[in-house]
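Entry 14. Structure prediction run on the chain below.
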Amino acid sequence: MAEIHILSEGYVREDEDRVGSTVSFVRDADVLVVIDPGLVPSRAAILEPLAVLGVRPEEITDVVISHHHPDHTLNVALFPNATLHDHWAAYRDDLWTSREAEGVRIAEGVGLIQVPGHTEEDVATVVETDAGVWVFTHLWWTADAPAEDPYSPDLTALHANRERVLALPGLARIVPGHGPAFEPNAATPR
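Output returned:
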């Protein structure tokens, strides 16, 4: 089963004009995945936790971006040997392989689903662990806010895809775009 590490916990500090993406690392056998390597206080916020885990940037095999906003993509180039995954393709060096993200398996326990809501191109990473299923998604900014995403181009899709994620069998944790992982419950915005 896959193991999960949060490298940098995201945040939104509007009063300071600061925003940080939740950056995560998943290891599933020989597949090493970084999710949403975007805005962080410094690149060390990504690289130092990886070093503690014994992982060098050039060893990362895959990077997933949940959507194309800079706060989730700024540091993708830290991983020169990785295949980059988004909603409609996989990229490696100068190779662009078109495909929909829905149903893509990056590793045995790591897959992608398309979940438009925050943007029309949103992708969630679904990871099977010994402790249950973890979903990395920007359908939620944090565990409780905002209930209505002010940037969503389609609130109906946002709510439908939140319900889809919440209905996943074995769901244990959601890792939102800008906050700590949380266990979904009846109060989780739908």
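The mean pLDDT is 96.
Filed with the rest of this week's runs.
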